[in-house]
Amino acid sequence: MTTWPNEVVQRSVDALTALADPERAPQMAAYMKDVAPFLGVPAGPRRTALRAAWRDLRAPSSDELGQAATALAHQRYRELHYAAPDLLDRFLQQADDQFARRYLAHLLTTTPWWDTVDGLVTAAVSPLCRRDDLDDLVDEWSRSGDRWLVRAAVGHQRGWKGDTDVDRVLGLCHDHWTDREFFVAKAVGWALRDLAALDPDAVASFLDEHPSPNTVAVREARRGVDRARQG
Predict the structure, then answer these.
(1) C-beta of residue 94 within 8 angstroms of C-beta of residue 62
(2) CA 29, 47, 158: angle at the middle one, nearest 5?
(3) What is the mean pLDDT of each run of 10 residues along the chain (231 residues)?
(4) Are 66 and 99 in contact (CB under 8 A)?
(5) Which H or E run contains 65?
C-alpha cells in the first residue's frame, strides 16, 4: 500500500517533470547560484500543477506531512524543493504542536539557499510560531551559528502585522547586528523595515543606538522608516 508521503512525492514528480523546460532550466539554476538543478518550471505553473496533483489527497497526520515535506526537500530538482513549503502551506492545519521541533530545522538546512528558507519561513515558521509557543526554538536557532537558522529566527514573525512583538524582534536584530554574513544582515534589515511600518520611532531609536556600521541592514531599515514617516 502506498504511503501518503510516497504518494505526494510521486504525484509531485509526475506533475512537474511533465512541465520541464530544458531551455529555461539552466538560467533558473544560474540565478540561484547553481545550488541545485532546475526542471525549468516557473512559480505560477508549478503551484497550479501541484494544486491539481494534490487535490484529492486525504488530510495527512502531522508526521505524514513532515515526512512528505522532508522527502520533497531531498529530491534532485529545485522545483521539488519548493514543493515542500507549497505542501506545508496547503496542509499546515494538520501540523501538531511538535511539528516545528521535529521537522523545521532539517527542512531549513537541506540544500539551503534564500529561496527555500524564505519560502519555509512564510509557509510554516511564521504561522507555527504565531500559533504555538516556540520561543525556545527560535532562541536555539538564533544561537546556532547557522546562517539559515538565524535568518529564520530573525524573520519568524514575518507577516504578523499588528500582532508583532516589536521588542522581541528588535532583540533578535540586536543579537545579530554585528553579523556581516550577507543573508543574516539582509534578514535583520528586512525585519527592521517591516517593524518600521508598525513603529518607526522604535526602529529609528534602534538605529541611533547601534552606530556600528551594518550597511546592508541600515539601508533596508532606513527605507522602512522613511516610507512610514512619509506615508
Answers:
(1) yes
(2) 85
(3) 91 98 98 98 98 97 98 98 98 98 98 98 98 97 98 97 96 95 96 95 95 86 88 69
(4) yes
(5) helix 62-73
**Distance (Å) of CA 11 to CA 7, 18, 68, 82, 160:** 6, 11, 11, 14, 33
Rounded CA gap, 76 and 154, in Å? Answer: 29
Cβ(194)–Cβ(163) below 8 Å:
no
Cβ neighbourhood burial of 115 (10 Å; 0-12, 13-18, 19+):
middle
Residue 176 contacts residue 138 (beta carbons within 8 Å): no
CA quadruple 141, 146, 150, 152: dihedral sign = negative
Q: Which residues contact 184 (CB under 8 A, 6 or more apart)?
A: 147, 150, 151, 154, 176
Q: How far apart are CA 231 and CA 153, in angstroms?
A: 29
> d(Cα 35, Cα 103) in Å, to the nearest integer?
21
